[in-house]
Amino acid sequence: MAKGQVLFDSAKEYYGTLGVDVERALSILDGMQLGLHAWQGDDVRGFETGDFSLTGGCQVTGSYPGRARTADELRADLDLAMKLIPGHHRVGLQGHQVDRMFPGVDRDAYTIENFRSWLDWAKDRKIGLDLAPAFYGHDKLDHNFSLSHPDPAVRDFWISHGIACRKIGETFGRELGTPSIVNFWMPDGFKDTPSDRFAPRQRMVEALDRCFAEKLDPAFERDTLEQKLFGIGVESCTIGSHEFCMLYAASRGLILCFDTGHFHPTEQVSDKLSAVFCMMDELFLHVSRGVRWDSDHVTVINDDLLNLARESVAYGYLDKIHFGLDFFDATINRIAALVIGARSFQKALLIALLEPAGAKLAERRFDYTERLSLQEAAKAMPWGIVWNEWCERRNVPSDFEFMKEIRDYEKRVLAARG
To answer: How do residues 187-220 score in pLDDT, each as one tens digit?
Structure first.
């Protein structure tokens, strides 16, 4: 018997003595899809023609060689990433990551034909596609306002873009057999203290109502709304704040999106899940890692990630949460960043799935001493052995092996991009 199998059998037996069914945990993990964010591969630049300026509070740092310059290049990069991430996942796109541009057609008039090759690619791989309107990086993000702009013509442009993305998402969902999540995030706001916060928010409510006026079949398309604390250039007032988005989503029947980097550094999204699920049935998570601000670092196994995974697992939320990733790091190999971040979150989920029930039972007895003792004991459990077994079953390289394929791809493919 191979050494790895011996270790796994021993770990499985150990977990079993604590009432943990390892095979059940792996079965649940098998069924969990992550939304792999395509914008990690192109530095959120998209593939529209003309000069690009990353406006709207986004910040991508670094210039590591090999950025995807076309949709074809990005799809090739995603193929490698999905090969190195255990499980079966989906891909999220931004509204400017088009396959093809047409003369005289701007974002307000995009159709499925602008994304046709993405749809064909997803069909071939039997994966789902999600889409987010790109309310940034465009001349019509005027003075950092899109849906809340005081000029009705500018608002109309962005409203049409939002509607177009919903229609494209509906086609994705219908043809791929899995509903497409269409996530709205708007960068609107003020760098310095405004004299009027109310009027822009009134305009945004009216604009969003127009975007979502047509009810689409939830079997094909799901609408989500994402909040933000602040972004670069909108430090003093973000129109689509947490309170604004939460109340709008709740009042209009949308799914609320939490981005783990979009809150104050002392806040944790994990603390919010139980409160939200007392009032809402679903949630969309953008999993990222903020370092002192919404800096979108690659996710790693830290307390924030472990707490998020544990809260997602502990109360039976897994069928209510849509998990997506949202970080972009151009200081390191972009494919490696996606693989490392995805695998880190999967590990956190596995740790949560393997957690013994003793701490929760102690809490019900008001024995907080025992609870603390068991919580600390759980940190030393042999989850890494179970992770290695899952990777082997999924025919995915181990943590010490996957970089070999990425380095080979870097030499063969990425280096030629300059």
So the answer is: 999 999 999 999 999 999 999 999 999 999 999 9
In the residue annotation, 3 being an active-site residue is answered as no
Catalytic residue among 188, 223, 296, 329: 296
Cβ contacts of 305 within 8 Å, gap of 6 or more: 287, 289, 299, 344, 345, 348
Decide if 390 is catalytic: no
**Domain with 13 in it:** 1-30+354-418
Q: Which helix (H) or strand (E) holds 130?
A: strand 129-132
One domain for residues 11 and 42: no
Q: Which of 324, 350, 376 is the last residue of a domain?
A: 350
Choose the catalytic residue: 89, 138, 161, 228. 228
Q: What pLDDT, in 10s, does the model give residues 31-40?
A: 999 999 999 9
Count up the domains in the chain and report the number: 2
Q: What is the CA radius of gyration of the chain?
A: 22
Q: Tell me which residue of 257, 373, 343, 356 sits closest to 310, measured CA to CA.
A: 356
Q: Are residues 194 and 59 in the same domain?
A: yes
Residues 288 and 391 in one domain: no
